[in-house]
Design goal:
By secondary structure, the chain is α/β, with parallel strands linked by helices. Helix content is about 25%, strand content about 30%. Helix 1 runs parallel beside helix 7 and helix 5 packs parallel to helix 6.
C-alpha cells in the first residue's frame, strides 16, 4: 500500500463503509442498529449519483416525490440518528485480505477495519460535451426509468445502440409522444429480440450514423439536439429530454487486483449475498449491480451488506 508510509494518523474501527448514496447510507443504518459502530466515508460525491436527479417519484415513502439531494439527506440523517459516524473524505488506497483490511483516506489517515462494506457506486458514461454538463438535470439524464415520467407526451432522444439504449427507448415509447434513438454506427448492437420490438414500435425513430454534437436549450431546459449525420451533414431535432445509455463505469479502480471483478469491472459477490472473495469484505449498490441500478435496489443491497457483516461477526 504505497501511501501508507505517508500517513500521520491511524485508527482502528469495527465496520468501515466506503461510499455514500442509498447503499452506503442504508448499510450505515442497519450496521448502527446492529451495534457495529460503523464509520462511513462519503467519497468524492456526497450522496452519490442520486444527488444529480432533480426529482425522484418512484422511491417508496415519498408519494409527492422528492429531490435526490433531499432524499439522500433524509437517509443520511436517519443513519446519524442511530449513531453512524459519517465523515467527509475520499479513500485513496486499500489493502484488503482475509486477515488484514487497511485503507488510507485522503492520502493521510490510515484505518484498519474488521469488516469493510464497499458502496462506491458506478458512474454513468456521458458524451463529454460542455452543453451536456450545462443541462444535466434539466433535460439530460442517464436514467430513463428514473426520469422518463417527467417527459410524458413529449419528444425525447436516447443515445446508444445496445440493449440498454433499446430497452430505454421501448420504455420511453410508452410515455413520450416520440422517441429518437440516436446510434453512432449503422447498426444496433442490441439483441435481435429487442431490435424486432423497437422496429415494431411506431413512435420510435432510429437515426443511424448520427453523432450528438451539441445539446440545445434555454433557461427552461433542453429544447433540442444538434447532430452530425454520416460525418458530413448537420441536422437538428426538437426534444425536451436526452437520455444517455452508453454504459456505466463501476467505481472499482481502488480494488483491482484485490477483489474479484467481472469483465466490466463490477464487483463479484457470492450467491444472493454481498460477500466478496475476501472474507469480511462486502459490496453493495451499483458497484456490484450492472442490471437494475435503482435507488431502491441499492438501498436493499446496503441492508443485505450490513446484515451479512453482522452475521460475519456472529460466526467468528
Amino acid at each position: 500500500m504505497e501511501q501508507s508510509s505517508q500517513t500521520t494518523d491511524k485508527e482502528s474501527v469495527k465496520c468501515l463503509i466506503i461510499g455514500s448514496g442509498p447503499a452506503g447510507y442504508t448499510a450505515a443504518i442497519y450496521a448502527s442498529r446492529a451495534n457495529l459502530n460503523p464509520v462511513l466515508y462519503e467519497g468524492m460525491q456526497t450522496g452519490g449519483q442520486l444527488t444529480t436527479t432533480n426529482e425522484v417519484e418512484n422511491f417508496p415513502g415519498y408519494p409527492n416525490g422528492v429531490s435526490g439531494t433531499d432524499m439522500m439527506d433524509d437517509i443520511r440523517n436517519q443513519a446519524l440518528k442511530f449513531g453512524a459516524d459519517i465523515r467527509e473524505g475520499n479513500v485513496t488506497s486499500v489493502e484488503l485480505s482475509d486477515t488484514k483490511k487497511m485503507v488510507v483516506v485522503d492520502g493521510k489517515k490510515t484505518i484498519e477495519a474488521q469488516v469493510v462494506i464497499i458502496a462506491t457506486g458506478a458512474s454513468a458514461r456521458y458524451l463529454g460535451l460542455e452543453s451536456e454538463r450545462k443541462f444535466r438535470g434539466m433535460g439530460v439524464s442517464a436514467c430513463a426509468v428514473c426520469d422518463g415520467f417527467f417527459y410524458r407526451k413529449q419528444q425525447v432522444a436516447v443515445i446508444g445502440g445496445g440493449d440498454t439504449a433499446v430497452g430505454d427507448a421501448l420504455y420511453l415509447a410508452g410515455i413520450a409522444s416520440k422517441v429518437y434513438l440516436i446510434v453512432r454506427k449503422n447498426y444496433l448492437r442490441a439483441s435481435k429480440v429487442l431490435q424486432e420490438r423497437v422496429a415494431a414500435t411506431p413512435n420510435i425513430e432510429i437515426l443511424f450514423e448520427h453523432v450528438t454534437k451539441e445539446v440545445l436549450g434555454d433557461d427552461s431546459g433542453v429544447t433540442g439536439l444538434r447532430l452530425m449525420k454520416q460525418e458530413k451533414e448537420e441536422v437538428e431535432i426538437s426534444v425536451t429530454g436526452m437520455f444517455l445509455a452508453i454504459g456505466h463505469k463501476p467505481n472499482t479502480e481502488l480494488f483491482k487486483g484485490q477483489i474479484n471483478l467481472d469483465e466490466n469491472g463490477y464487483i463479484l459477490t457470492e450467491g444472493k449475498g454481498t460477500q466478496t472473495n475476501i472474507q469480511g469484505v462486502f459490496a453493495c449498490g451499483d458497484v456490484q449491480d450492472p442490471t437494475y441500478r435503482q435507488a431502491i435496489t441499492a438501498a436493499a443491497s446496503g441492508c443485505k451488506a450490513a446484515l451479512d457483516a453482522e452475521r460475519y461477526f456472529q460466526t467468528r
